[in-house]
């Protein structure tokens, strides 16, 4: 968790009227999404679970809309000639 996340979580928890931590976390997440992200990660080949080009495109569009201008998207994929870390 980054300091940005901690600050927004604390603010959401402070403004919550008797809500639980789930409500505060949801408010913090909504605040962070509205602010945008500098970095998005897709690790350990999870992208390969998408079953169609349409799903892949929709994923890229969603990630793009969540990034601030100049934000980065890191997509980790296994090299086709090597077994993945999970298979080792």
Provide the fold topology:
Elements: H1 3-15, H2 21-35, E1 37-42, H3 53-66, E2 67-75
Parallel strand pairs: 1-2
Q: Over all CA atoms, what is the radius of gyration?
A: 17 Å
Number of domains: 2
By DSSP (H or I, 4+ residues per run), the number of helices equals: 3
Chain-averaged pLDDT: 77
Summarize the main sheet: 2 strands, parallel
Shape: elongated
Ranges with pLDDT <50 over ≥5 residues?
Answer: none
Helix content: 40-55%
Helix/strand-derived category reads: alpha+beta
List how many beta strands DSSP finds. 2
The portion of residues forming beta strands comes to 15-25%
Distance between the termini: 29 Å
Summarize the helix and strand pattern as letters: HHEHE
Largest beta sheet: what is the strand line-up? 1-2
Question: Overview of this structure, please?
Answer:
The protein is of the alpha+beta class and 88 residues long. The chain contains 3 helices and 2 strands. Helix 1 (3-15) packs across helix 2. The longest helix is centred in the first third of the chain and has 15 residues, at 21-35.
């Amino acid at each position: 968790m980054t300091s940005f996340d901690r600050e927004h979580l604390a603010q959401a928890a402070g403004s919550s009227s008797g809500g639980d931590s789930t409500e505060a976390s949801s408010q913090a997440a909504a605040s962070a999404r509205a602010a945008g992200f500098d970095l998005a990660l897709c690790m350990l080949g999870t992208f390969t679970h998408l079953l169609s080009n349409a799903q892949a495109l929709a994923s890229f569009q969603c990630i793009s809309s969540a990034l601030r201008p100049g934000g980065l998207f890191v997509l980790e994929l296994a090299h086709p000639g090597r077994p993945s870390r999970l298979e080792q």
